[in-house]
Write a structure and sequence with these properties.
Two copies of one chain form a homodimer. Chain A is of the alpha/beta class. Chain A contains 13 helices and eleven strands.
Chain lengths: 356, 356
């Protein structure tokens, strides 16, 4: 073998090793901070499923470690963690950041807003993702759907609501925008830490509370002390959120970028499917084991008043900021179009099914 | 340089090349046969989206070529193609194979069956995937959800249906199981090639037809010649199907297996979102541009009679085959549980929204 062939062989060795290292040895290691505690059902499954898909699809080249709230000690610090790059990813909900940027409020759910399939259609075909990007871009944060709870129940009430007067002075745990709506009608919305909710309701510190729906309410035990379970109006399609630090994302090779986006999108849809399952199963358990629980809808005049208070509040918001107006116009226009289909498809079908 | 070092260098070259080849050079090339023609809207997007995700997530190591019906010339030959390994994959619908194995009928949709979110919950949490595997395993074929149309409309009718008598002798293009149900009530179901449907309806060769829903009906033009558009009962959640040849799948490295499954599952969910969007958009177009189109639901006595005919037919099927009974029992039990939730969530919410 000549010296020149030997040199060629060594060049090939060097080239081949560098290629091999890129393909298999240099692992990307990221950290995700989530709002939830460890082993939180359904919500926590979404982040775990996403990280597992990323690991398996990348053949172990891309590892995402999940830190729950017990670890990072800041359930509502997720936005800042991701913005600063302290964590490359977060799992939370967009409406938690309305104090930082009011327009983040509109990418989770809205009272009297879209149902889950309608809202996914708005995100992916109706301009929702583009509007969300407009809002988050300036923080160097990318925001994506992170899992849907489906329709949330209106809450657990110790006394029946028969008229608008019954809302007056009602002490209810209902945080955020929906609480502001009820406050317009004289209710006293409060927020209470989840660990203290049961006792507060039992001791009449509050008269009512909303949590999620049967998927997560069953384990809280509210059905044992509040016999009225009201149907929903305030969170028809609560979508959680994956956040990604833009600079960290830009450094990923193209295939890992697509793997990450695909895993987030699938984990989000899958959480909606899981929520549907858990809600059906747990509602059946509540109805079988606690036959005294009465499922009610608010009387029509109450519902109309709540809806009007909500419309008035949204109009106030829209008047303050052109970007808010742009987002609300998009939502309202899209909702009107897609609701026509929902009414003639699933809604008419459920009526046809129950023809009596 | 000694001879022994030269030998070591060559060993390294060989090792490195084999590693490098595995990581980047040996492409997996598959072919997928689909029932639809080229550029078929929505359905064809699902297979294309799946193949694009596989290619991008695998960094080009896994390429799936799609042959539409114009290429392979056998729209309903997909099952046999995949079973024989002539194609590694197929994109079609499970209920097309009921002539080969009757129990494939139950993995697409059923008259008076589950809605789309309910059915996904059954597939992934209620035992549906396991039952589908039982049915397909013996053919060496894997079957997966392949995209959902959402609720399908009951069809376009030239005359209004006011009573059961109006179904008697009605010539309607409605193939498959739903046609058998209507035949029990005296209708004359027929099947007609899609290219001839418009003319058949215009010339009164048929009195009515069902196709899909606004997402695909608009381009067919039926609204120009049949003024009554009926809401749905027979296909509440039509799920297309990806099929994979089991032996071909088993030869894939683990990461490409997960990439393939993830891409199929996401493309299926995404088709439901796309269907929701297209249906909303196209229904609005029909209503705006053709105000004479009247959307109707069958009168209650008609709906009740159709439902009874359907129940009787399913009971006949279940009596013939224990596996059929097992599948139908699973569907009915799950549907009853999850429907409780649907009624108190999205359905009650839509009523609350429209409180007047």
């Amino acid at each position: 073998m000549s010296k020149s062939i030997l040199l060629k062989a060594l060049v090939v060795v060097t080239f081949a090793f560098s290629g091999f290292a890129n393909a298999g040895d240099e692992k990307v290691r990221w950290r995700l901070a989530e709002t939830w505690g460890p082993n939180f059902p359904v919500f926590g499954d979404a982040s775990k499923n996403m990280a597992r898909l990323v690991k398996e699809m990348s053949d172990g080249r891309f590892i995402i470690r999940i830190d729950s709230a017990n670890k990072h000690k800041s359930a509502l610090g997720i936005f800042d963690f991701v913005k600063a790059g302290q964590y490359q990813m977060g799992h939370s909900a967009s409406y938690y950041w309305k104090g930082k940027d009011f327009n983040t409020l509109f990418f989770t759910t809205l009272p009297f807003g879209m149902t889950t399939p309608e809202q996914y259609a708005w995100f992916y075909h109706g301009g929702g993702m583009e509007l969300m990007k407009d809002v988050y871009d300036k923080y160097g944060v990318m925001s994506f759907p992170g899992g849907n709870t489906g329709n949330q129940m209106g809450g657990w009430f110790r006394k029946e609501i028969n008229s608008l007067e019954d809302l007056n002075g009602l002490k209810m745990r209902i945080p955020g925008f929906a609480g502001e709506v009820l406050a317009k009608l004289g209710a006293k919305p409060t927020n209470i830490a989840s660990g203290e909710l049961y006792t507060a309701l039992e001791r009449n510190t509050i008269d009512a509370l909303e949590w999620v729906g049967p998927s997560l309410d069953l384990r809280m035990g509210f059905h044992k002390i509040a016999p009225f379970y009201y149907t929903g109006w305030h969170e028809p399609a609560t979508e959680l959120q994956f956040m990604v630090n833009q600079k960290a994302y830009d450094k990923l090779p193209k295939d890992l970028q697509v793997i990450l986006k695909t895993a987030m999108k699938l984990a989000a849809y899958d959480m909606y499917t899981q929520s549907t399952h858990e809600s059906g199963k747990n509602l059946a358990t509540i109805q079988n084991d606690y036959p005294n629980v009465k499922i009610r809808s608010f009387p029509k005049p109450v519902m109309q008043a709540i809806k009007k208070a909500n419309d008035d509040l949204l109009a106030e918001f829209a008047a303050k900021d052109p970007k808010t107006k742009e987002i609300l116009d998009s939502i309202h226009k899209y909702q009107k179009q897609v609701r026509g289909w929902t009414n003639f498809s699933d809604r008419a079908y459920l009526d046809n099914f129950d023809s009596k």
